[in-house]
Amino acid sequence: MYVLTSFLSVVDIQVAAKSFPVLYSQSMNTVLRQELQRFNTLLSKVRGSLQELGKALKGLVVMSADLESIFSAMFINRLPDSWANVSYPSLKPLSGYVTELLERLNFFTGWLSNGNPVCYPMPHFFFVQAFMTGALQNYARKYTLPIDTVEFDFAFFWEEPTDKPEDGVHTCGLYLEGARMGKPGEGDDQAVQLEESLAKVEI
Question: What are the tens digits of pLDDT across the range 128-153?
C-alpha cells in the first residue's frame, strides 16, 4: 500500500499552467490541463483513502463504513465504488485498473516533461471528446475555418510514426473487434486496409 501511494502524487497544476499556457493556436494545452485536473481529483481520492485505510488497519482511526467498503472491494479485487465515482470508466478488476492507471500517469508525466507527444493513446484520456475537439480546433484556427465545417479524415499506419504530423494528430491504442488491419501490399498498393479477422486468433 505504501509503494502504491508513493506513485500516486498529484500534479502541480500551477507548474503545468506555466509550461503549457492557454494558447489560441494550441488547444491541446487546455486539454492537458483539464485531464490533469481530473486525474488529480482521482489521485487525491485514492491516495487519501489508502492512507486512512492504513491507519484504520493499525487501529489509529475508526474503520468507517466507507473505509470498510474499500477494504472489502480490495479483498475481492474489485474497484471500490468511491474511486469509481471520480474515475474514468473501467470494467477491469482492481489489479488491472491500477496497472492501467499507472500507464496513464506515465503518459501524462511524459507529456509534461517532453512536450506534446508524437502519438496520443486515445484510451488514456478521461474525456476523449475534448481531445478530438482540440484537434479540430487546432486545424480550424490554423487555417481560419469555422470549426463546424471541419471534420476528421483518417490514414492508417502499419508502423507507429516517429515524427509529428504537419496537421492533425497521430493516435494509437484503439482496438478492433471482428476485423484486423492488413499489411500494406506490394508495388502501388501501399495502403493499410481492414481485413477479415483470423479465426481463433486474439490480437
Answer: 999 999 999 999 999 999 999 999 98
